[in-house]
Amino acid sequence: MTAVTRGSQPAERGVAEPVQEQGAATTVDSAAVGRRTTAAAADTTKGTIRGRLAERMAEIAQKSGYQPPVSASTQVPPPIPSSAQPAHADQSTTNDAVRAATPPNPSAPVEKTATPAAPKSRAEQKIPTASELFDRLKAEHQSLLRKLHERVFDAPREQLFFVSTKNPEALSTLTIASPNRTYGHDYRPVPCQVFDWALNQIPEDLSGFTFVDYGAGKGRAMLLAAERPFAAVAGVEFAEELHDNAEMNIAQYPRSKMRCRNVECILEDAVQVGPPEGASVHYFFNPFDREVFAEVLKNIVRAYRMKPRRLYLVLIDPIAIDLVDASGVFARVEPTQVDVIKLSVLSLHTVAVYRSLA
Prior knowledge:
This protein is of the alpha/beta class. The protein has helices at 2-64, 89-101, 130-153, 155-158, 192-199, 220-226, 240-252, 290-306, 321-326, 337-346, and strands at residues 210-214, 232-237, 263-267, 280-284, 311-316, 330-332, 351-356.
């Protein structure tokens, strides 16, 4: 009995163990199938949701008439064979169906192939022409010369004036009783060095000459002339404020600087003033228009014909040289080569000097 019992126990165990292993395998397979089923269901749900969303977007786009352009970066890749499609193949199929069902929008922008830009012209590139470059260089040169005269050449003498003479004055702000007011030019000071270069062209002893400044302004040219040995210096000014400034500067100018102390400025229209009796230098820094200059020149020529004598005309920025040439009384004084270089390189103004034939 004991042997039978011992022999039966191993046999029972041998039968029971395969059954237990088969049950465990069945449990594992069921769990794997459940996970795959859940994943497939989730993928199907996602695909369905995305498909519905794509359909809704397609409907909105169709109603609004907007068709987004399809670029190379957004083109749909070729379909994947059914044997290789993943679990979300339903989504791709739905999207393809939506795109196929959406009609083309003729108003949608069409992507164009970029073409190389045409070369720009000189005007588009804003490349200055030779004439523009010359004008620019000329303007810069004039600006530099203006600063050179104001800050270097004029500064030592400007300090000697009681009333500053360096600032321009518009005639429209001044008191003028003359009927020739409309023919007058605004006051501007002559550069001191330019004035000296102009008078240096007179190759005579100035002690027997009277200097006359037409449009004397604040008296700068008169007092610069007074530094030379003229017999007398006179100025004519028709603006009351400028005449008063000239009178104050004459009164306060250092006498040690004046080689001629017989200096006077009168308030009068230049047309109403005749030339002095003896030899004289008549100075014009473009004070008025051609009409007034013609009248003043006529007075000088008439006086010369009545009594021939040595006369000089000093014109800075002249506007009526043709009238002087046509008078038959004056001839042009040719400047020296040194004066030509100085005036052409360092001057902002043109200078013409004439001498009477007598």
